[in-house]
Amino acid sequence: MSAEGSDADEAADVPASGDDYNTPTPARAVALDVRETKWVAECDRHGPVSMALNKYGDPVADVSAAYVYTSRDEADDAARLHLDGHAARDADIMTPDDIDAAQSLNFSRDQWRALGWMREG
């Protein structure tokens, strides 16, 4: 029996998960020593190189100004909080794709009015 014309031929190709689809987390915990007794949180979103974070979550160019944690969990939590701050700031930013999608919508006058009422609360 030939496999031609079977359901397998009609199934869509699903891209395999690999390095092309996975990117490193922009903020993460990094060990400062080989024994992993000192940790810092660092973020890639602040410049061409990763920057360590101080105790307030602000990026610092010099790693000696970074806040040092005694456990990886604490540094992971700091990195997660830092990413939450990025997400909160990015929530109000429209990408070019978002703008194109919004401009392609064809709302009626009544729909625009309802959206205005929602915006005003």
Element string (H = helix, E = strand): HEEEEHHH
Helical proportion, percent range: 25-40%
Q: Count of DSSP helices?
A: 4
How large is the share of residues in beta strands? Answer: 5-15%
What integer is the average pLDDT?
A: 79
Structural class by SSE content = alpha+beta
State the shape.
elongated
Instruction: Report the strand count.
Output: 4
Q: What summary fits the major beta sheet?
A: 4 strands, antiparallel
Q: Could you give the order of strands across the largest sheet?
A: 1-2-3-4
Oligomer: single chain
N- to C-terminal distance: 65 Å
Low-pLDDT residue spans = none
Radius of gyration: 23 Å
Structure overview:
- By secondary structure, this protein is an alpha+beta fold.
- Helices cover 36% and strands 12% of the residues.
- It is built from four helices and four strands.
- It has helices at residues 7-10, 72-90, 96-103, 109-120, and strands spanning 27-31, 39-43, 51-53, 59-60.
- Strands 1-2-3-4 form a four-stranded antiparallel beta sheet.
- A hairpin with a 7-residue loop joins strand 1 (27-31) and strand 2 (39-43).
- It is elongated and about 65 Å long.
- The mean pLDDT is 79.
Brief summary:
The chain has 4 helices and 4 strands.
Layout: helices, strands, pairs:
Elements (H helix, E strand, L loop, with lengths): L6 H4 L16 E5 L7 E5 L7 E3 L5 E2 L11 H19 L5 H8 L5 H12 L1
Antiparallel strand pairs: 1-2, 2-3, 3-4
Q: Can you tag this structure with a few keywords?
A:
121 residues, alpha+beta, four-stranded antiparallel sheet, 4 strands
